[in-house]
């Protein structure tokens, strides 16, 4: 059935040097490149019988261990490339049936891809996750929030029977104020950090089951930062973390990562 081409990333041809010795998607072959003018694709070859669309669909849907291993391989490979070149990372399982079809895609999208390279060159993607101890913050809100305090005073004037139901409402009010406070604090940090970066986007938060953290994730954001400004950005994150940790907050910056969030090219 011939070969398929698995695409990891695209690199400016002018940056491409000797490709590192990296194993391909099948665990046997090696990465190699295909050039289309100013753009070079980093790929590996796959046996079409073993990695055709139907086989991959079945693996993704029914073999979780295989999926995890291959997704990790893709991530680690793109990460390794991003440490050497300016890369446009491709999503997991981007496959072409022929060299001609891949070259055609690169040629047709050359202008857009060069614009992305211009945006990414000299810059890095970093991630920030903000965690919060909900119980600690809830206790602080319950004691210091003027809305909560006023409601508590009103309830104290009621009969015991009415107090029971009103206290239930108060608990819900505390929960509402908790979420609003978490958003206010996180947005304040995010807006301050955006002044130090080229771009900053907010992502969906992860559940505690995914993170494995004791504290709940309240914020998840990504930033495109000039390499010259990364140290200042990290210092600012550390400063916020030190300032806020006694009140139950924790800030974690990680990177640099392949710029998935700032290179929206899809084949």
Automatic annotation (TrEMBL):
It holds the Pfam family GvpL_GvpF. Keywords: Gas vesicle. Its main location: other. InterPro entries: GvpL/GvpF. It is found in: Gas vesicle. Belongs to the gas vesicle GvpF/GvpL family. This is GvpL/GvpF family gas vesicle protein.
């Amino acid at each position: 059935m011939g070969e398929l081409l698995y695409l990891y990333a695209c690199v400016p041809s002018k940056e491409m040097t000797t490709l590192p010795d990296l194993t391909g998607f099948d665990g046997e072959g090696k990465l190699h490149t295909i050039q289309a003018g100013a753009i070079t694709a980093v790929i590996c070859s796959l046996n079409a019988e073993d990695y055709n669309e139907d086989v991959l669909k079945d693996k993704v849907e029914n073999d979780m261990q295989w999926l995890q291993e291959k997704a990790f391989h893709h991530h680690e490979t793109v990460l390794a490339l991003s440490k050497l070149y300016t890369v446009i990372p491709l999503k997991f399982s981007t496959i072409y049936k022929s060299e001609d079809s891949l070259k055609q895609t690169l040629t047709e999208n050359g202008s857009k891809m060069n614009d992305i390279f211009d945006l990414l060159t000299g810059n890095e993607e970093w991630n920030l996750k903000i965690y919060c101890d909900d119980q600690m913050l809830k206790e602080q809100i319950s004691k210091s929030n003027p809305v909560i305090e006023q409601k508590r005073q009103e309830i104290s004037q009621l009969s015991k029977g009415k107090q029971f139901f009103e206290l239930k409402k108060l608990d819900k009010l505390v929960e509402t104020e908790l979420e609003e406070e978490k958003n206010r604090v996180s947005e304040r940090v995010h807006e301050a950090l955006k002044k130090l970066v080229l771009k900053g986007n907010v992502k969906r938060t992860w559940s505690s089951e995914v993170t494995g953290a004791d504290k709940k994730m309240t914020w998840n954001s990504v930033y495109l930062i000039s390499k010259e400004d990364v140290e200042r950005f990290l210092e600012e994150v550390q400063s916020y973390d030190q300032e806020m940790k006694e009140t139950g907050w924790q800030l974690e910056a990680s990177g640099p990562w392949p710029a998935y969030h700032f290179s929206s090219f899809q084949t």
